Each structure stands twice: as C-alpha cells, then as structure tokens.
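Researcher: I'd like a candidate sequence for this fold, 729 residues long. If you have to choose between options at a position, lean toward the conservative one.
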C-alpha cells in the first residue's frame, strides 16, 4: 500500500515538470499556416545547417507562393506542395540524397530532425516543415555550387528558374514579405585583424564590410551600439560603444581605421573584447545582447589560445561571428564562432559578396537568444518584447523559477528548439502574482545542455490590477531553489519520491489551479447577441472562457494543452481536416455542447492507442467508443480524442465508419453489389483516392493503380466528398 504525504512548502507555488513530450509542433500539423509557423520552419532549417545561408530566400518564397499559406488554394485538392507550393516533379528531384548538393543537407535532416528524406512522400508536404525542407533542397539543387545572393533582384532569376515563372512576380511580391523587424538592443563589437598577413586590399574589404553591416543595422545610442577593436601583435580599441551616436559617424570611423601590421594575437583581441562588452565605462549596457564579429584570415599566433579565449567569450553570453578574408584558415574560424557554425562562419573575398553576408549576419544577430551565464537569471518588463532566453541547465537543485508581479507570464520551454513559442514548444507554464512556476528538470541531460525559454508577458486585467495595487510590472526567470507542493510516497514504512504512475493511480490527473483569480467578464450583452461566446483566458492560453446566454462565463480547458486561438475562437492553429457528417466539428467553434474531450482518468481503455500518429497519417480519424455504441471517438489533427454522439436512433459502425440505423428501428442495410470497373475512366487518378460519381450519388469511384473502379454504397447511403465516406442523406 502506498500512502501519500503532502509536504506543503509554499502554498501558492506551481511545481511543474520538464519535459514530457506533451508540447506543440505546428510545423508537422498538416494544413497549418501563418507567418509565425513559416519563421519557425525557416529557423529550424537554418539552425540545423540544412540550408543555413539562404539570405531570406525561403522566407520570401513562402510569402510569394502562398502568402504564408493564407491563399485559399494553398492546400487545394490534388496538390500536396504546401506553403512553399513545391510541385511533385520538384519534390521528386530532391529524393536522391546522393547528389553532391544534397549529401550534407540530407545527413543533417536525418540526424537533427529524425526524418529519412528518401522515405518522405509528396503528401507529407502538407506539413509546413516538410514543405520548407523540400523547397530548401530544391533550391540547393538549383544553385549547385553557387551562393545565394542577398538582394531580391538578384534572387529573382533563381526563383524564376525553380518555379518556371516570371522573375518580376518575385520582385514585386517578395518586397511585400513581412521581413523580421529587429527591435532588440545590441552591443556589437567588430574585431578587425590588422596583422602583416592581411593585405591592404583585404583590410579595405574588412572596413567596407563593417561599415555596410552598421548601415543595415542602423546604429544609434538607444538601439545598436558599435565598438571597433583593431589588433596585430597588440590590441587597440579604435572607438568605444558610446563614442558615436549615428550610423554615418560610425561608418566614417570604420573607414578611418588604421592598418597596424605585425603579428596576429587573436586571443588577446578576443580577451579585450570580453572586457569592453561588459564595461559600462566604455558605453556597454546591462541586459543587452552582446555580439562580436571577428574579421580575420584566421591564422593567429596560437590556435589553442584563440579557441580557449573564444570559448570564454561565448560562455559569458556573447554571440560570435567569424568572417574569413584572404587565405583564411577555416578550422580556426570554426573554433571561434558560435553554434551552429554553419550560420556563424562566412568567407569574404570580394566586395560583391558583402550583400550576401550582411542579411544573414543581421538576421542571426537579431534572432540570437539572450544567453544567461551559469547560476544567473534574467529579468524584464511584462510589456516589453523579449527575445528567447538561453539558460544553462541548473545544478543540484534542478529547477528554473519564473516569477511575475502585476502581470501574467506564459513561459514556453524546450531543450531542443532554440526558439520555443506558441507554434513549437515542449512545455508551457504560466506564472501569476504570487503563483511562480517552478520548472523541474527530470531528464538526464548532457552537462552543457541549455533550456530555451521564451517569455510572453501581459498586464493583469484592470480589475486585478486594482486589487493588487500594481506599480511594478516586472518578471524574473532563472535558477531557483526547489520549492512548492512536494508529494512523497510512503511504502512499507519507507518514504520515497513518488513516480508518475503513483500520482496517476491516486487520481491526481489534473493540474490544480486557483480559479478565484479576478477577471473582467467578457460575456456582455453585445457579445452574446453577436454570437461571441468564446474568449481568451488571460492567465493560461490552454484555457478559454465560454459564455452562456445569461452572461455567465465558464473556464474551459483546451484538449491536451493545445492553445486557444483568439482569432478563430478555437483551440489550436487549424481546424481538423475531416469531420463527421452528423455532428459538430470540435475545431470550428460550432455545437460546442455536442462534444467533450476524453479524460484519461475517467476511461476504461487506453486513449493513447486510438489517435496515434500512424492512425492520423492513414486518415483514420473515427473509432469505436467501447462503452457506448451510440457514440464514437473523433480524432482532431493534433491527435486529441473527442467523444462524439451519433444521430438520433443511430449507432456507430466501424465497418462503414459512420453512424447508421440498426435493423430494428431503421431500414436494413443490404449488401452492396460487386464493384464494377469504369472502363472510360482510366489513367487519370491517384491510387487510393476516392471520387464522387456524378451519375449516381449512391456510389463512388476508387482509384486502383490508375483505374477508376465504381464502388457502391450500402442501400440508403450516399457518398460524401468532404468526409470521403458513405453517409445517411
């Protein structure tokens, strides 16, 4: 017998567990769309070195081809190219991973994303991640040994060749792409190699490159501050972060950088950069992302000292780029740069290559995580836009604490994706005033593993602010002491930590929550009259508020941790691709009372064995409900199970995959006649697909190896194109 002992350490602390695989990945949900999903896919392709230096080409192409999936024909019937609109012929040309242009990319797809590309089918491209990968691989095949240019006008001919369309289309539409808008504050230090091994031409190239980067980043005293470190045998700080206040002044200063000559003490230069990046006396700022851009031929006086000093610089939270010029030494550039190396090491041998590098430098710099040193935390204001945080896995206490005052903190967490957010996360936790979230690491992770955290803060509702006398809207996230409600188990007189099975068997299936937090009631008369019955719940995006006709609201849980979408008034990102013919669709906000998510704690069978990835891949969305034949189980596109009712006097038939009348109250279902081959319909279909028969609604065509074979429905049923089933009319 197991006895549970509740050890209450802090009554209002929520202790949660990281990571259990119950997160969200919209990139692998067929039919997902939107700029956030496109950006997430492109980032994964770049960060896993599949196509690292695409110069915004993939981002722009997604918008040009489908407006990030919002074009109505993006997911049209008979075309599986997805957001990037990759044709089947384009896709098939990427299947041979032995092509020189694809060998490395395919290897990285397999090792980093666990996708065996030769086994992928064209229909898989309805998933945004797969569509993006296919577009990246086809671009690599098209480029061959050439580099992707950065300017839209230079990319247009490449796009035109790939999609067999006019380059002017790309030029016009790509300019409308909602490019990333970098609002982060940055302290950027350029480190220019002025040693004797660098020619005067290459040194001039360095200065021009630095000036061009600063021009794009728009240097200013409030946003991007720039410093210039010049070195050979010795090191000189040519100008500090606060010496110049405008882009033009900084560019002029770079052009006036003197060439010194002598040895190549790169380690000394990196160490000096460490000092000035954190020196307020030189204009550096606290809680600002730090960036170092080393421009060198990579042939230092000591490879070992250079590598070790660069590691110290990176460990303190600085993102390091290494730009090679002249007869560069690639191994040293790679040893200096931040991970992933593929997007932090560039080579520069001509002025016309500057534009190809600047865009990637700017984007990678802007998107760099805010890195937190070991045993340190980070703080902010709930109204600020905050970049993702890179936190080292804490020590013995194994916790990360998120706290907030006068606000609501949604914390998206991952140990694999550096940019967690609503589209991709392993865990989602919420902190409110007096309710810190304590993230406990339960997995055995490598010593240098990071926990990636994205913080989304919002202010409390007006009524809650008044109760709390709010004056400070700050938050903190960082290592903390293991606190909260700890559950211990006593078995045969021995106290031990409870396992998940212990807790589940005892009935603690649902996470406890304080339902008394103040809310502004959204169930106004106008909203009810206009049919606006669903509203976001500010304290937790996995819940929403449901209004009744009397103006009362009910806090409702989305299934399986899926997030409430305020734009669609629905849980999740897209509606399920199939729905039952005689019930409401749980993804479209209709007939909400007709369905309910199944609770694993209250069922007598294993729900996880029903809506499996394999079942969804085979379009098996409907299943028998063992406890009641008048109901059935419907799976949504995310693998969540709903209990759905059949129509009046009908029962579920798994054979027919629909609800029908039994022999007693309704007509008997007579066996269908043998199928007949439609001889006039050959060679025009996709194997396994079903098609309506315009001449007879009581039958349909099924494609069998290129031939359309007429298949009858049971007597009384008609074929439904939407559900791909025979149903009662």
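Model: Candidate sequence:
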């Amino acid at each position: 017998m197991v006895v549970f002992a509740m050890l209450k350490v802090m009554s209002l602390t929520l202790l949660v567990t990281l990571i259990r695989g119950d997160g969200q990945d919209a990139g692998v949900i067929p039919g997902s769309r939107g700029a956030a999903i496109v950006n997430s896919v492109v980032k994964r392709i770049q960060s896993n070195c599949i196509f690292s230096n695409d110069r915004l080409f993939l981002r722009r192409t997604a918008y040009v081809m489908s407006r990030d999936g919002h074009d109505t024909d993006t997911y049209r019937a008979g075309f599986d190219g997805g957001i990037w609109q990759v044709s089947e012929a384009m896709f098939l040309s990427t299947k041979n991973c032995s092509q020189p242009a694809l060998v490395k990319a395919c290897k990285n797809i397999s090792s980093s994303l666990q996708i065996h590309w030769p086994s992928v089918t064209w229909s898989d491209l309805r998933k945004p991640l797969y569509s993006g990968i296919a577009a990246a691989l086809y671009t690599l095949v098209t480029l061959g040994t050439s580099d992707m240019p950065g300017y839209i006008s230079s990319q247009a001919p490449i796009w035109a060749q790939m999609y067999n369309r006019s380059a002017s289309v790309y030029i016009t539409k790509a300019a409308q792409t909602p490019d990333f808008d970098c609002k982060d504050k940055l302290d950027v230090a350029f480190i220019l190699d002025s040693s004797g091994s660098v020619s005067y031409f290459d040194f001039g190239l360095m200065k021009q490159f630095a000036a061009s980067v600063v021009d794009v980043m728009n240097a200013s005293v409030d946003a991007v501050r720039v410093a210039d470190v010049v070195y050979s045998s010795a090191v000189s700080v040519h100008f500090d972060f606060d010496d110049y206040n405008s882009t033009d002044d900084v560019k002029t200063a770079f052009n006036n950088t003197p060439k010194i000559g002598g040895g190549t003490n790169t380690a000394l230069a990196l160490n000096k950069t460490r000092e000035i990046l954190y020196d307020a006396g030189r204009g550096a700022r606290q809680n600002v992302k730090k960036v170092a851009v080393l421009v060198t031929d990579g042939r230092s006086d000591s490879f070992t000292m250079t590598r070790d000093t660069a590691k110290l610089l990176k460990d303190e939270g600085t993102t390091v780029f290494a730009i090679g010029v002249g007869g560069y030494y690639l191994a040293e550039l790679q040893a200096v740069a931040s991970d992933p190396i593929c997007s932090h090491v560039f080579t520069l041998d001509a002025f016309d290559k500057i534009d190809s590098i600047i865009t990637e430098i700017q984007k990678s710099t802007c998107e760099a995580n805010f890195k937190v040193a070991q045993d340190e935390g980070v703080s902010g204001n709930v109204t600020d836009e905050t970049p993702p945080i890179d936190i080292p896995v804490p020590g013995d206490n194994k916790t990360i604490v998120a706290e907030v005052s006068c606000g609501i903190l949604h914390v998206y967490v991952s140990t694999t994706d550096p940019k967690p957010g609503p589209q991709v996360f392993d865990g989602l936790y919420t902190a409110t005033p007096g309710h810190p979230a304590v993230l406990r690491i339960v997995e055995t992770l490598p010593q240098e593993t990071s926990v990636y955290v994205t913080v989304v803060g919002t202010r409390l509702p007006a009524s809650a602010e008044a109760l709390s006398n709010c004056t400070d809207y700050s938050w903190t996230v960082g290592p903390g002491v293991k606190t909260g409600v700890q559950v211990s188990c006593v078995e045969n007189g021995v106290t031990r930590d409870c396992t998940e099975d212990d807790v589940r068997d005892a009935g603690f299936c649902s996470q406890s929550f304080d339902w008394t937090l103040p809310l502004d009631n959204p169930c106004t008369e106008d909203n009810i009259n206009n049919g606006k019955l669903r509203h976001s719940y500010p304290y937790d995006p996995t819940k929403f508020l449901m209004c009744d006709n009397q103006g009362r609201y009910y806090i409702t849980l989305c299934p399986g941790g899926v997030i409430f979408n305020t734009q669609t008034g629905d849980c999740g990102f897209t509606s399920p691709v199939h729905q039952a013919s005689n019930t409401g669709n749980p993804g479209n906000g209709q007939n909400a009372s007709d369905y309910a998510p199944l609770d694993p704690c209250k069922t007598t069978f294993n729900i996880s064995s029903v809506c499996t990835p394999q079942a969804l891949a085979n379009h098996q969305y409907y299943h028998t409900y063992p406890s009641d034949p008048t109901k059935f189980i419907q799976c949504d596109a995310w693998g969540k199970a709903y209990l759905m009712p059949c129509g009046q006097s009908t029962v579920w038939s798994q054979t027919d995959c629909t609800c029908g009348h039994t022999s007693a109250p309704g007509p008997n279902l007579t066996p269908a006649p043998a199928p007949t081959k439609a001889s006039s319909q050959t060679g025009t279909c996709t194997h396994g697909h079903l098609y309506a028969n315009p001449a007879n609604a009581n039958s349909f065509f099924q494609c069998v190896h290129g031939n359309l074979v007429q298949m009858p429905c049971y007597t009384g049923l008609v074929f439904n194109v939407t559900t791909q089933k025979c149903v009662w009319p």
